[in-house]
Protein 1
Amino acid sequence: MKIAQAGHAELQVRDLEASKRFFTETMGLFVTEEDSTSVYLRAWQDWEHHTLVLTKGDTSGLVHLGWRVEDPESLDQFARRFEEMGLTYTWVEAGTEWGQGRALRFSSVSGVPMELYWEIEKYRASDPELVSALPSFPQKYPTKGMAPRRFDHFNVMANDVAREQAWLTQVMGIKHRYYVEGADGVRRGSWLSISNLSHDIAVMRNHSGSGARLHHIGYYVDSPDELLRAATMAVEHGGKIEWGPGKHGTSGATFLYFFEPSGHRIEVWTGGMLIFAPDWEPIRWSQETEVVGFDMWGSKAPETYLRYGTEIVKATGAGAIA
Amino acid sequence: MKIAQAGHAELQVRDLEASKRFFTETMGLFVTEEDSTSVYLRAWQDWEHHTLVLTKGDTSGLVHLGWRVEDPESLDQFARRFEEMGLTYTWVEAGTEWGQGRALRFSSVSGVPMELYWEIEKYRASDPELVSALPSFPQKYPTKGMAPRRFDHFNVMANDVAREQAWLTQVMGIKHRYYVEGADGVRRGSWLSISNLSHDIAVMRNHSGSGARLHHIGYYVDSPDELLRAATMAVEHGGKIEWGPGKHGTSGATFLYFFEPSGHRIEVWTGGMLIFAPDWEPIRWSQETEVVGFDMWGSKAPETYLRYGTEIVKATGAGAIA
Amino acid sequence: MKIAQAGHAELQVRDLEASKRFFTETMGLFVTEEDSTSVYLRAWQDWEHHTLVLTKGDTSGLVHLGWRVEDPESLDQFARRFEEMGLTYTWVEAGTEWGQGRALRFSSVSGVPMELYWEIEKYRASDPELVSALPSFPQKYPTKGMAPRRFDHFNVMANDVAREQAWLTQVMGIKHRYYVEGADGVRRGSWLSISNLSHDIAVMRNHSGSGARLHHIGYYVDSPDELLRAATMAVEHGGKIEWGPGKHGTSGATFLYFFEPSGHRIEVWTGGMLIFAPDWEPIRWSQETEVVGFDMWGSKAPETYLRYGTEIVKATGAGAIA
Amino acid sequence: MKIAQAGHAELQVRDLEASKRFFTETMGLFVTEEDSTSVYLRAWQDWEHHTLVLTKGDTSGLVHLGWRVEDPESLDQFARRFEEMGLTYTWVEAGTEWGQGRALRFSSVSGVPMELYWEIEKYRASDPELVSALPSFPQKYPTKGMAPRRFDHFNVMANDVAREQAWLTQVMGIKHRYYVEGADGVRRGSWLSISNLSHDIAVMRNHSGSGARLHHIGYYVDSPDELLRAATMAVEHGGKIEWGPGKHGTSGATFLYFFEPSGHRIEVWTGGMLIFAPDWEPIRWSQETEVVGFDMWGSKAPETYLRYGTEIVKATGAGAIA
């Protein structure tokens, strides 16, 4: 019973047209399937059917975060664990989310909606314009937009970071990699991963105290130079830069945060460390090192970064829990 | 009487549709004006109406290379110099080339067709989709293709390099910057500039002995990383890479050569040295240093690079001499 | 019983002084410990005591490749497995390799010498000149040389690639990720990983038929731009470039191969794909796609790349099997 | 009578040892000559004997900015012009500044100390460790520090920007390229060049009203990626980052500002536009576009950037006016 990777996010958006245009034209993601209320997207080397689902709604918010499990058995095993722990969950039938098998839906202890799934269509371009001669490319290398290589990670806000992190580690098996702790002993943020990435999911303190929020989802671009180009593209093509380019001291990754037209915060990032040691000890960042931890080049996180996230929605979209 | 800058090239192409598609979709140039036989193109920060004109024809070849002069008087002054020297020239009327005033047409001693011009429309986007909020951007920063910043240089082949270089320097005032010379004393290549660029025009030996040819035109991308991305884009989007990425030892610039669909060789390059010294002495590269001069990382120039260039055409296009 | 990561290589070198100088001054690795016959090296963000050991010898060759296991129990479990399979192994006592606990030494089916270990000192700079203010940095970010971030992978040659790959997968549990297969059905190369890297170890066909060889070890630099700088550094600082910069079509990584002064081939590389799917199917490259598989930009592998590797030595150095 | 290029700056420093260490170890400049009170420095592809002189003093300040003229005659011609205008000047004898012929010293209308010179030793490495096999490299490509390719530009503060710019243009012939103007009609900054660079010298408003100051000198690195590495190097190797990495909307160049140990502000920058048009019209930036003009990615200039510059010193160093 194990989680294999962070797979995708479903975001409800208040302006589907504008968001779709931004994600395809400016960010350079590709549409796998769509109808008038949903758009399924992936980056050019994402192998799964989708890593982002946009669902039309009255407000913008997070519908769910999707995790792929290590093997088919893990789904029922996790369901049993949830039962034993008295946790609520539901099953989403195969095909409810296009291209995907049945999924186990539940919420983390702080209220972040998640799902586990095993079956997922593998993407391979069929449109002759997109078919690549390279077997390692599910489609041709793109010529448009920021063109991230792949989906990378989730980042959520919670009132009690330590509690959420403990839950993710103990219940879901996601390892604790590094964290920021105030002089008051209060956890400001925790970064966790199940893979060799420095984090598959992060939990940051909601300084506004309003509970669980989506802080951002992150896509991976191939180089710092591409990230700078992405920033320049954002300026005049519908992205509102919030912070960056900067360099996280914690992970060593170069970052850029911007808002897409419906108000979700998106990160593109690149580089930094991978973690291979099986006996990795979570790295502690104190209040003194927090500043360089956030941006080692010295810029400060804007207030919005500390207080604003997209709400959790009880969605009516593709992946909705009845 | 002085030349100010290398301005543009007019290329006859045997497949206008395919070439236009490649230059716009893959290279990321922009169309200023076009009709069924001509397409006027520029890079996103080219300030002039065009830096490349594609003209439909039965074969692919060079129609002319355009140089802008330093002031309006220089045109007639150059005409007088040509008369005194007994050189043939013709005047092309204003508007023959769209967006451009009258031009003085002539051929170099080796037979490379050239023109001098002063009046040229300055480009400033009017399409709201393209208008930039930045006064220094004639249009928005692009999100598509290799997206070079600007036109950079010309490169021609000649049987007698030393003679062509002497003519360019003495008649046109273009300074000699560096050259390759064989142990036999025969000049293999010369690079010249009127600006601070390492070269605005180069002359390389036609190892096939077939006389004047266009070797390539060069556009400038902003970083080595962009150049590598351009190579990856070329692979599956209609560009046939001939050589590179590599790094010229001579100029220090990173290079990539590829053929566009009608057979013209195009270079995108970046970086390397600028030349500021008013008493610059041309740098000599011997046969021993020639290899690192061409690619300091050690790859060898392919045979096509030494022998193939596009022919000189007596064109019927926009800029034709009657 | 599981392997966690590719850890380090011990290389015998015929010119220890020259090799040490190259690895520290030009490559920018750091010495952890050394004496007159051995130098222990690591990249700036390598967390272990060493990722490369140079041992003085009459010839240059591979002493062993070191793999770290997932937990302390795995060592004895692997020993039992080897016994059950009738494979020979020996124990190297703790401290024989500096900074390291006892290790299980054995050879792969093709004769590649390997070891498994669990205990290893974690590096944290104590020299005030090197101590970083960033908890995520085991030492300050360097200002010298190619400065790779970390050790990346092994690459060995074998006469029978398919057999060696099967052994690595079945005995050591290292997953098969992609491979090249001739029209004759003969395996040309296989790439395998236990981590999310596209490969921790590769096996390539020894076209000279001389059996097991070390092809190269690979270090990871942070960007394509850094890799290009590394190439320029190599040119005049003791590295002999063999091939590259190029871009592997298989992994998508940008590569550079060069020889260090004692004749070992070293790769610095960056980028490309990570593999997250638990049901990953090995990607097949045919003879038709092999060319773009090796370098998608189109350069061909030099003959030396296909035929030359460093010999396997029965070493007398730190990690020698008695 | 014409200026050819911005050549060098002489800076008085209160801690010569610390500044020398920073400029050589962290920035990666090279010492041409030095004694106990002066250090002459150049970047690896600077062709002149020096582009930076550090002179020991009680305070840190600007001694002079050096401009090379187009030909030997220009020196006396400028002296005559100054006489006709009633401007004070002095001659500095050949050899006073090492490696340099006689120089004409004067101050701009705002009080910025400058010199014009013609004769200057050309640098070519003689130390075998530094001699390059590439004729275009005055020394080997470096392996240490930020390693800018060349000196780039000057930036000074003045109370009345428009007046200083007019003087530089009319008296020294340096063309006006772009400027920022408040809604109140007050000039905030002007950028000028004699070369194809977007600026060889800039004048920015001293918001503290304290008159002429050195704002910074700028060196050119080869790529945005190198600039980001420079920022990371600065963090733990003696540079105090003030602002950046960011991207000037005006020039399009990527920038980083930091303070060296004696308090001078240094910029490393890269990319952006060159200016070729002989009829270039200065580009106006209004208060509305000023923000993106300073950093198109949206960060704001810190207060120190608007108010702090190094004082003008009546120096006692190598280049002192008796």
Protein 2
Amino acid sequence: MSSELNPVTPEGASFVELCEHHLAEVGGRAAEHDRDGSFPLEELRALQESKAMAACVPAELGGLGVRSLHDLVVGINRLARADGSLAIAVNMHAAACWLLAFLGPRFTARGNQPVADAMTGLLAAAGSGVVFGLAGSEPGADFLHPLTTASRCSDGWILNGRKSFVTSSPVAGLFVVRCRVEERTGPQQGFAMVARSTPGVAVKETWDALGMRASASHDLVLHDCRLPEAAVLVDSQSWGAWSRVLLLASIAGIGGIIGVALGLAEAARDFAMEFVTTRRRAPSNRLLAERYPTQQRIAEIQIDLAAARAMLTRTYAAVDAYLGDGEDQAVEDLHRVHAEVQSAKAFVQRKAIDIVDGCLAASGGSGYLNRSPLSRLYRDVRAGPFMQPLSPSEAPEYIGRVTLGLPP
Amino acid sequence: MSSELNPVTPEGASFVELCEHHLAEVGGRAAEHDRDGSFPLEELRALQESKAMAACVPAELGGLGVRSLHDLVVGINRLARADGSLAIAVNMHAAACWLLAFLGPRFTARGNQPVADAMTGLLAAAGSGVVFGLAGSEPGADFLHPLTTASRCSDGWILNGRKSFVTSSPVAGLFVVRCRVEERTGPQQGFAMVARSTPGVAVKETWDALGMRASASHDLVLHDCRLPEAAVLVDSQSWGAWSRVLLLASIAGIGGIIGVALGLAEAARDFAMEFVTTRRRAPSNRLLAERYPTQQRIAEIQIDLAAARAMLTRTYAAVDAYLGDGEDQAVEDLHRVHAEVQSAKAFVQRKAIDIVDGCLAASGGSGYLNRSPLSRLYRDVRAGPFMQPLSPSEAPEYIGRVTLGLPP
Amino acid sequence: MSSELNPVTPEGASFVELCEHHLAEVGGRAAEHDRDGSFPLEELRALQESKAMAACVPAELGGLGVRSLHDLVVGINRLARADGSLAIAVNMHAAACWLLAFLGPRFTARGNQPVADAMTGLLAAAGSGVVFGLAGSEPGADFLHPLTTASRCSDGWILNGRKSFVTSSPVAGLFVVRCRVEERTGPQQGFAMVARSTPGVAVKETWDALGMRASASHDLVLHDCRLPEAAVLVDSQSWGAWSRVLLLASIAGIGGIIGVALGLAEAARDFAMEFVTTRRRAPSNRLLAERYPTQQRIAEIQIDLAAARAMLTRTYAAVDAYLGDGEDQAVEDLHRVHAEVQSAKAFVQRKAIDIVDGCLAASGGSGYLNRSPLSRLYRDVRAGPFMQPLSPSEAPEYIGRVTLGLPP
Amino acid sequence: MSSELNPVTPEGASFVELCEHHLAEVGGRAAEHDRDGSFPLEELRALQESKAMAACVPAELGGLGVRSLHDLVVGINRLARADGSLAIAVNMHAAACWLLAFLGPRFTARGNQPVADAMTGLLAAAGSGVVFGLAGSEPGADFLHPLTTASRCSDGWILNGRKSFVTSSPVAGLFVVRCRVEERTGPQQGFAMVARSTPGVAVKETWDALGMRASASHDLVLHDCRLPEAAVLVDSQSWGAWSRVLLLASIAGIGGIIGVALGLAEAARDFAMEFVTTRRRAPSNRLLAERYPTQQRIAEIQIDLAAARAMLTRTYAAVDAYLGDGEDQAVEDLHRVHAEVQSAKAFVQRKAIDIVDGCLAASGGSGYLNRSPLSRLYRDVRAGPFMQPLSPSEAPEYIGRVTLGLPP
């Protein structure tokens, strides 16, 4: 009876198995990448070769065909035990694939075949090795108000702006850029698909942070980038408002973000367990595990871990069940699902931070040294709450309002 | 997408439906029973008539045949929303039935038909309306060291001792008494089945507590009670040690105890939601729900509630899966399951206390008045951590040791 | 080296000594008053006879002449160890006296001798045994927006409204009623001094709460009460705004409220210490104090208690120093002082609740029974956060804004 | 009315003023020293020139003559706002000086002039620029059981062992080494004074940690170091037991350690306040400070900060009062004082960690970048709980036992 997360679909099981297969390789250089702030390029290439990177690409387009967000979360969770930075990179790419695979048939059903075809094209690219870099955040703006603009020009669009925290920026072949579409009727929410080779695209290597140092979450500068007509998806909602696509994107992306927090906590827990069951202290030379304070600390870690796992797996099982119903989702319902997902994010990330902190304490100072993985995990796990779309300052208001039946 | 607990077996669904059917009646006099410290006798009778009391009695013996502990938890959880005291009373009885129904076939399989038959007899009694009163606790002794003694005499046993916190004592027809069996080879763990009519049995009405006031958890005094040979089950372990039966009894009984805590929290949450979405304050006359601090508080309640529900449902789904395997359970494995159950108990009870406290705060002082159900819920929910077998001072050591692979 | 609070002025030392002298008598019937919801009338009379009730009345008017709010807090803190309800009643009366004694000379200095004389008259009444009942709260209104109205009539004022939580209502000879003064230029903040014998005054015995049950904090109904001109103090600020007098009243009254919380925590701690150092448990019969979990719990209680004491004594030492400067206090400065006082209130009340809860846990279930003082302390201590003027939902915004230099 | 700590003696005021004078210089290169793990050598030299390093050296021996531990704490607190690593280095040196100045006259009074003279000699050395490096910790041993041995030889002592976390190791001229003295009657507690130039002394540059990176807390290897007779102080207690000197050393050293935690929290708070009162966010462009969640977070930070300051200043004011009584301190009394000090350590360090974490959250992700001082403060402040003599696993048992009147 282990409380570990487990996949529930055959495709998910294949993906999780692959992730576990990569663990030793990925973990082997995590400390080095953390120290140097270097992106784990070779490890990512290995994930591409094994098709783990193509988890959510349909099988017919070269992927594993994972359709369960729950199972995507489980695989990302496994990877994070070895390297949180790489796991985040894989997640942002895979979640984008999942969204394309989810939305495509719906666009077809609504008769919008061109968009559906474009999505298929992007998935095929992903299937053949293109990495997606998600460019959502901007300094000084919240998730619903991107300041990067897409303006129409004679033959398409011109894109201008600066994005931050663009994970995988060194290897991304295509950037998915949240933007403000300047329509005559007023600004709309939008997504621009920007090939790396587009003139005006530049990656500025700004990422030097407390943790998640190997994620290469640099800035992306977009200067008068000219894009073809089909490269910008104009969303159904105006700038500043939540749309179905934004909600789905958030629901798809956050699962893995939570899974990463959990994976970091699990890695810390495994390390602490190993530590206290092998180290002794003078003069009694009893194992640390034999001491009451250690037992108590391990108990609290175990309780938190079980709760975090239960919260995450139950929430994403419900997400799968909801999204699998086949009907188009009402925005109001999506808000409710999204509030549950945000609740899971808040809960699991806090607990993950607590768990790593408790493991650090259990290590009795040895974990504070840089040669211990705990010092990296302590820095990495603190990143989670800052991840979009809602900050810890914004999420409670959102969850509270949705719960209370007020407009979010 | 509600995070509420739901039954997973048909028998469980019937039980939960029955419980929900009783809610209005049970809730109607909960405040009165709490004030007066009176046992909800009529409500219990109604539960007997509907067979809800016989949830875990096999259908052929007059019950509902619920075999899923998970589903027992769900039904108890529903009852607790109306009256925690009654829910606890039902749980202790139903969990005893579950244990008898679970163990009987195993005794048959091991060739011990007399004990199996005795268990069938007890279940038949429960099916025809006998209420079980569990007598586990004693002042000044922990769970593994009952001081009540069963000594052999010419024609059976003599029982002496004093038990406390015997829920349902006014209506119990049969007391299940944890005792120390004085064998020549040393004291053993044991259970005595004591009919209320046995000479020497007396209920002392000592129960006057902060909360759970309607549970009539009085003292049971046993003075030279003579019992027939078959009335004492001598356990396989010596006094002071965990046995399979003790572990199974704890696993069976704690689920509903946790379910009660959750139900009290849910009731508080529903009341607080109703309160803040209907009350306004001068001079703005805005709804309380429109205020940021209220939204934030509701968000935290929602997060805690979702986590508590996930932890409880996942843990008992795993318990069902483990127990359903058919094999006899190794004590070592049962300890692991029991540690998970204790983790769920610690987590959910703490969260339930926090949730009720948050609801009290959300009510802005009105909940502090006795006319508000919140004041009762605040008192009731604090009882949970004191419930056997492990106190909050003992549980962390137990969970920690089991997790660390040390003898518990 | 005890961390207990101690008085710093000779008058304060006399007051604290008196309070300690009364402890045994006050504590003797606290459980009875709590159970019956009866006001501790005889105990209050004894405090009047010893002049403890007249702590803040100047010596020349028959009191002890305590001018240090810090020392008022210390004495109230002592009383609360025996009975929180009585301590609150004494505090509200004494804080009102303190405010009158503080403001009188300042009105004289500003040439407003009639108001100063009225204040002297009130203090003389207090010196000769009149008890003040503070009527601040109202259902459905916050502190700054009382809905009770004082309207001018030919020969004075007509007062109408309903106040709640009027501590000491059975014995109060004079009610100090926060009201909205209906001036032609718009509503103003105001205080009405209402003799109990005034036609139209009625006490409705509504107080039946979770805790502080002996405080008789009933409703006060004011129906067309005619008051003389001098009985209403029209404040300098309009209705809804903070004035100097309101800030001073809050600063004066809250100290004792915090002191009560601390005293309840100290009483719980003393009880728990006595419990764990005298009780043993089978089979080892070791003292509970010898068990690691007990030691750890006592340590956390000790840490919290030391921090709560330090916060309270340091804050009110600073209040004394600030108010003793002699100058009229700028409203802006008073807000800063008031924010410190609110911080102390938030901190100490939270810690007091935690401490009592920890003591309950340390008592291992015995404290949950009504015969234990812990069950009363657990209920009493939860009242504190609801006490005016700022609720736990309002205080953080106030403290935050003042700290950030924004208008509160 | 600021809640900042302030000195209470003239000598202390001079020291604090000096520390404040150095702040800009010290802070200027703190980020650089943190990044490179370089010791702030020039900054320390400046502190030596200004005599700040000689705070606790008597004036006649070239120091400032600070005798108040409270005031030592205040000065260290100021330094930590600029650089926690340097502040720790200064504290360990200054606390050693304080202890020598405190103990010297007591040895004289007891007729042990040689030891008193040796202490004067050490203080004179400190007055003329020698830096003390405290070597207390060892891997795999607790504070009371040092494994480094001092054995008698023909002309003095031979010292062998390895110490860790020896702050200031690059500049220390004299190491104060906690050791186990091998006496014929059994091992005793002891201190060895080891000049850096002693053959067999080697500093191993092992310090590479999560935070406090500039403190150069390297390992000290002692291989057959021959020391003169007078260089080893054989303590009155046997190895493994607390002695008066050990308790005084702990009381003297911990104050500044707590002051460092507080200073880091204050620096984080100042940074966060500056941040939220100057940054705006699209589309409203309101200041972050105008947002409710920010106000609330600042309020919690303010509450925690006020409580931490009150706890620290009150505790060390009591320490000064206790130690100033002139009498020799009974070990039992010293344990009580030490338990208060440990309580203050536990409380303030936890709150400091919370405050820095809250400031990081208030910064909305910007603080997570290495260019923000918050990322350094977040790492630095986590070091505190690991500092000797009692770990967070050991302190609760110690505090609890002393509070309960049990032998520690």
